[in-house]
Structure formats: structure tokens, C-alpha cells
Amino acid sequence: MRVIKTLRSWNVYVDEAYFLGGWPKAPVLEAIGTHIFFDDQDRHLVDSQTKVPCGKVLYKSDSILKNFETEMIVNAKDTEKVEN
């Protein structure tokens, strides 16, 4: 929702938006004929930039979202250790 709210605050409105979570982006972007792709993570932009023009969305390093993302990665690694 952060993406939509940011674009609207800039008076930019989109016809379609896709939120793919952790799925690989490049095949989907190519299949649907994406004009441009924005993401805030380098790992999502690396493969995607070979298929469509990409832009990195920056956010403050003290953002609660960045802390949440880091926490999710750490928790996922902890869960993997417990399961193995």
C-alpha cells in the first residue's frame, strides 16, 4: 500500500499494480508487457533490469519497514535452523 500512497501523493495514478511478494519478478514483468518496474530492493532489480526499465525506490534507513524486513529475514533463518 505504501507504493500506491506514495504515487498518489505525487499525483501519479496507475491503471494496474502487481504485488508479487518473493516470487521472481523478471518472467512476470516480461509476460505482462511491463513498461517500467519499481522496487526498493536491489535483489529484485538485478534480474528485472534485463527485461524492462527499472527504478529503485528509496526510503529512509530508519523506516519501520526496513527494520521489519531485516527482522523477517532473521526470523526466517531462525525458523530454518529449528526445522532442520
From TrEMBL:
A GO cellular component entry from the record: cytoplasm
Keyword Methyltransferase among record annotations: no
GO MF annotations in UniProt: 5'-nucleotidase activity; magnesium ion binding; nucleotide binding
Entry keyword annotation includes Aminoacyl-tRNA synthetase: no
Enzyme class, broadest EC rank: hydrolase
Cited Pfam families: 5-nucleotidase
Assigned EC number: 3.1.3.5
Keywords: Hydrolase
A Gene Ontology BP annotation from the UniProt entry: nucleotide metabolic process
InterPro entries: 5-nucleotidase (IPR010394)
Superkingdom of source: Bacteria
PANTHER family named in the record: CYTOSOLIC 5'-NUCLEOTIDASE 1 FAMILY MEMBER, CYTOSOLIC 5'-NUCLEOTIDASE 1A
Protein name, UniProt field: Cytosolic 5'-nucleotidase 1A
Species in which this protein is naturally found: Petrimonas mucosa
Gene name for this UniProt entry: Nt5c1a1
